Amino acid sequence: MRRRQFIGSLASASLVGAGLPGCSRKPPLQVGVHPWIGYESLYLAEEFGWLKDSVALVKGGTGSESVRGLLEGRLDAAAITLDEALRVMALGVPLAVIAVMDVSAGADVIMARPGMQSLDDLRGKKVAVELAGVSAIMLLRALEQAGLEPSELDVVDLPVHQHSRAWQRGEIDASVSYEPVASVLETRGAIRLFDSRSLPETIFDVLVVNRDRAGKLRPALRDLLAGHFRGLSHLVRSFHDAIYRIATRQQVTPEAVRRALATVMLPDLSANQRYLAPGGRVEQVAASLIQLMLREGLLKMPVDLKGLCDASFLPRGPL
Amino acid sequence: MKLLPRLPWLFLLLVLDAPVATASEGLTLGVSAYRPADVMVMQYQPLADYLSEKTGLDVRLEVLAEDDMNRALAANQLDLFLTNPSHFLVIRSERSVTGVLATVLRQSGATSTASLGGVIIARPQRDDINRLEDLDGRMIASPGVHFLGGYQSQLLELIEVGVDLRRRGRVKLLGSHDRVVRSVLAGDVDAGFIRTGILEQMSAENPRLRDQLKVLNAQNLSGFPYEVSTRLYPEWPLVALPHVDQARVRRIASALFALNSEDPAAQAAGIAGFAPPADYQSVELLARELRIAPYDRAPQLTWLDAFHQYRFWVIAVGLLLALLLASSVWLGRKKRQLATEQRRLRRLILSWPQPMLMIRDGRFFDFNRAAVELLRCPSDDFVMGKAVASFMPPLQPDGQASVARADNVMERVRGGVVESGEWVFERADGSQLWADMTLAPIHEGGEQDNVILCALYDVTRRKQAEQRQRLAASVFEHAREAIFITDEHGMVIDVNGAYSSMIGYSRARAIGRLPPLPLEEGPGILHTARERGFWAGEFESKRADGKGLTLALTVSRVLDERDTLTHFVGIFSDISRLKEQENRLRTMAHYDALTQLPNRSLFADRLQQTMAQERRQDDHLAVVYIDLDHFKPVNDAFGHGAGDELLVEVASRMRSTLREEDTLARLGGDEFAAIIVNVQDRANLENLLKRLLAEIAEPVWVADHMVEVSGSVGVTLYPQAAELDGDQLLRQADQAMYRAKQAGRNGYCLFDAGDTGA
């Protein structure tokens, strides 16, 4: 649930280099993950032993840790948002999207003071948003839909974990955030003005791999995706079991997990094949994201999208 | 006859009609007895009452064990039933049901859950049972195989850690969870399987219970109100059977959903109410995974189905099989052919008289009889696995170490070259063997093994002959003696170096000519050699440059095996120096060193010869004895050198006075003697003597002084009346000389008979 978790709020339990005993043949694939409902399939796969020895999950607290790991070369692969992937690529690390973990369908939300009716009401209001994260994309897309310019708002660049306090002090009128901050704000009287359900198939959480290393890691990447889809299958089919396990790991109630799961779509194998197809949704979204991010200065230079999606690691047959 | 086919239909209608007929009277709710019947009734009667009250229907509770419920269902005696999800799947597979009306929401304290799982319990005293793996082969109690929380969920967890209870364990089926707990407590079994919630319910009745049991593989799921050992599945479904009127079903459903947790009915049953039907897919997956009812049998597939489904594969596999069969037959035949070839080849090699060995990785691994015999090995084992060099002396004749040379050659052979060369071997018995060894690679490029064929050819005899020949050639070439070989006619066909240097002809010039032969006998000596086997002799010959030399030659004939003469062999040496030496010695023995005149001994010889000759020819000879007068004073005055000079001069004068055929000898000191042959008459003789005296008396220039000496000469003649020998003659001449001396020197006296007395 803490996809873009507050930096430092969780101690990074980095397992880099710890490796797995008995796998002396090759160092295992280093995959950066952090707690987020869309990535739970990987945690479940690990818990049930469905990840082979060729794969090691490097559990970080936030997406930015995974981004750093990719940039520093410590990680071979990671689960991050699509815009984070593009930012990494702009810094010179070539990435390939090998799977779509989830698509936000309500997980990202704009919370506002009661009384606001529509996005138009945000005009001239103080809106807190973490520009370095996916929230920026959410806000920009939302404004685009409402025909507003970012300049028409008073944008306050604030890390998401500080939104609740700022709200409390009355420093902001709206917050672009996600769970669990959104729920916290709700309890403090905020209303949901807009959420990612209105931006269907726009905010993607993806599994990326360093393209330079993908060739050598081919078997391990297949193992990783096989594990992911098996975990996903458990999450969907053995829902009664999964919610308790997720709740335990995320230290929330099963009910909260149930709610969180409702805010994301977890694409199965065939949906993944559709998303990753050449000219598919991921490519389209990435292309328009680049336009947007360049325009808003979130990206310094354009990113070459050639070879961005690589569906070749997806499991072949039925699971 | 027409009625008979209708009968089953009638029966069916009756059966279907039966519940409908009883519907107005109420509904029967069957509840699976997972706990003892009295407990079940206590818990669920309020629910039945609640439903009766809410729906206005008479809902009767029937607590049924699994089998009873099955029977009741088969008899269509139930309208609603509440059972565990696995049992529900079995029922659903056997008959049609309307689907799940609602899923139980179980209540525990303040929390509710629609999930259930399995619990694995054991007594805490059992230190040997702590992990799932420890259950392998144990006696385990379970309420029944259709219990999801009491059997199936545990089974899956155990299978995932590699423990298959159905194969190796003993499971005691006790029918209810309470019995399982009691059986574990009593120690009848090692562990027990129960569903979630049982432990908590029973602990409520017996608070000490929890301390008497431990839970294995505890999952610790936050938000889940029970202790659990397995993953979770949806709770029990409440199902309506299809014969129940739809309106009633709706009424029941609305009553179920309306039940809230505070209601006494809910409280009694320990539930929080009912949730919308859950997705029982996970239970189905479990059943499929475990291959238990209703998925305990793989779907019946006909061959035709399989063929239609896998048409391409069937054809492909069929083709491949056919290909495989064909290639196997073909390979088999090839293999037999190959084996025959191989046997033939092997026989050929083994029986081949030439020694042959096979080398792999530098060691013999196969060989024939001939090889073992050639190397004189006591057995085959002696050769097997040995390196080539182990049958060789440390060094080869060319000075190379055998091992190094062999390795070298092997390396080249491995590269594809055929190598052949002469090697010295040391046989097993220590004797030396010269062999021509040929090494040939018999592997091909792709083969892993480096197999080399080693063929040996014994050349020891040839080698020994060669050695003898070389020795002979060496003798021939290096002998100090000149050696020639001729054909049967005596024409030279070969000569050695000594021949060339001795005779002065080059080898080319010498060949085709006669060898040096004695002048007189010439090729006659060859005849002698032909007859007698050899000829030996010495003779004078000439070098090419005309210089004379003396040769000592031995010529031997050479016969072939049929005693036909084929060659002559001559050996000669140059004995010229030897001859010279001999001459010089002879001169020294017969001549006076100072004057070069014959000495007394030669004089005596000559006298003997001359006397004989004169006797034969009836001639006369005179023996003259000459003594120089006053010689001693010269010697004394001017020294012995001067004396010698004087003697030489006087001797020379006397010699020139005498004729060539006469002999002058120095007998010693200043005494000389001469033999005058062919004395015609006395006058001639006396003239000669006078000339002789005159010559002696001529002054002589010695040591820068003019010296004059004279001679006293005595003469005697031969033959005389009496037969005399030489000595007597000389003595007569001496006596005559003595008279001449007495007569005043510088004169001569002829011997007469009176001298003898004087």
Radius of gyration of chain A: 19 Å
Report the radius of gyration of chain B as a whole number of Å: 75 Å
CATH architecture type of the largest domain in chain B:
2-Layer Sandwich
Please state the second-level CATH architecture of the largest domain in chain A: 3-Layer(aba) Sandwich
The CATH topology of the largest domain in chain A is what? D-Maltodextrin-Binding Protein, domain 2
Greatest chain-chain contact: A-B, 15 and 19 residues
- Measured as a percent range, the helix fraction of chain B is 40-55%
CATH class of the largest domain in chain A: Alpha Beta
Judged by helices, strands and strand pairing, the structural class of chain A is alpha/beta
Strand content of chain A: 15-25%
- What does the largest sheet of chain A look like? 6 strands, mixed
Given the structure, what is the number of helices of chain B?
26
- State the end-to-end distance of chain A: 26 Å
Q: What composes the largest sheet of chain B? A: 7 strands, mixed
Describe this structure in words.
A six-stranded mixed β-sheet of chain A has the order 2-1-3-10-4-11, with helices on both faces. Chain A has a five-stranded mixed β-sheet with strand order 7-6-8-5-9, with helices on both faces. In chain A, helix 4 links the parallel strand 6 and strand 7. Chain A folds into two domains: 186 residues, D-Maltodextrin-Binding Protein, domain 2 (3-Layer(aba) Sandwich), CATH 3.40.190.10; 91 residues, Periplasmic binding protein-like II (D-Maltodextrin-Binding Protein, domain 2, 3-Layer(aba) Sandwich). About 6% of the residues of chain A have low confidence. Chain A is an alpha/beta fold and 319 residues long. In chain B, 43% of the residues lie in helices and 23% in strands. Chain B contains 26 helices and 31 strands. In chain B, strands 1, 2, 3, 4, 5, 13 and 14 form a seven-stranded mixed β-sheet that branches. In chain B, helix 2 packs across helix 9, helix 5 crosses helix 11 and helix 23 crosses helix 24. The N terminus of chain B is likely disordered.
